[in-house]
Amino acid sequence: MSNLDSSLPDATAAAEKLRVGFLGLGIMGSPMAENLVKSGYDVTVWNRTKSKCDPLINLGAKYQPSPQKVAASCDVTFAMLADPESALDVAVGENGAVSGLSPGKGYVDVSTVDAATSNLVSARIKDTGALFLEAPVSGSKKPAEDGQLIFLTAGDKALYERVAPLLDIMGKSKFYLGEVGNGAAMKLVVNMIMGSMMASFSEGLLLSEKVGLDPSILVQVVSQGAISAPMYSLKGPSMIQSLYPTAFPLKHQQKDLRLALGLAESVSQPTPIAAAANEVYKVAKSHGLGDQDFSAVIESLKSKMQQHS
Ligand SMILES: NC(=O)C1=CN([C@@H]2O[C@H](COP(=O)(O)OP(=O)(O)OC[C@H]3O[C@@H](n4cnc5c(N)ncnc54)[C@H](OP(=O)(O)O)[C@@H]3O)[C@@H](O)[C@H]2O)C=CC1
Ligand SMILES: O=CCCC(=O)O
């Protein structure tokens, strides 16, 4: 097929020259928006803390002072916000995106939220005549920087097709999962597994050390067997040194476990492992580790912290 084939998504988007809004420039939103700017898109940004917009503005992004004004000045607006409360506030609160939307526009929420929040945002967006897509992501800070995220999308198929070239810039793959809520649910199930894996890995590192083994050799052994995971090889060495440089904040992992437990409860699915893991993250959060990487959960299993909890 020729590169000039206008049926290709890339060619369609280039021909359309979409104006892209981006709300929420935290650990994930900043590199995602940066990749769009670097790919030549006309990007307009907003963030609650305005200073985080400056590096993007220096790269050529435009700025608007509210989600409403971003949505009004763009064809499609992405939102990458901390949690259900902020996702709702930015979409439907005062000067929220909804008041800037109209038929022909689209809103793509890439935050990790629960299905109920996503459905609420979707209903309000659709009331304006605009289209809605939920598209939470798997992959952390580095994959966001490298354009290697995995999008778990659901909602308006027409919007999915329209933004596919943008998702392809920010990510390495994308799944379309049907009705709004399915993307949120898939993301929560994935992060429920991840949270339990990290808590279990933490126990193993500490146990190996207590029985006189070298935990760095445990990391090597794990990396070569059936339970190997990139996460263990990536985070294990720094965890052994009690270093937790933030890629995925612990407070967000605990939020995802909380939301996943709610999802499980809604269908009476027992999730005792995730429930136990959630308690360990809650202890870590209550000890002020919420802004550190989620691998800092190991701290809550160290005996000195157990005595103080
Ligand atoms: N970090 C990661 O590895 C991954 C994170 N996620 C998910 O992506 C989302 C964002 O994560 P991440 O970028 O790491 O988080 P950050 O904490 O770095 O960024 C959160 C963003 O939300 C904004 N925000 C928070 N509260 C409000 C509010 N009340 N009103 C308006 N804006 C608000 C922050 O604004 P301000 O700058 O003003 O604080 C910031 O832009 C979360 O849902 C997270 O679970 C998904 C995959 C990976
Ligand atoms: O939500 C955060 C996910 C982090 C990851 O997938 O590595």
UniProtKB/TrEMBL annotation:
It catalyses: 4-hydroxybutanoate + NADP(+) = succinate semialdehyde + NADPH + H(+); glycolate + NADP(+) = glyoxylate + NADPH + H(+). This is Glyoxylate/succinic semialdehyde reductase 2, chloroplastic-like. Keywords: NAD, NADP, Oxidoreductase, Stress response. One of its GO terms (molecular function) is NADP binding. Residues 19-178 form the 6-phosphogluconate dehydrogenase NADP-binding domain. The keyword Oxidoreductase applies. The active site is at K187.
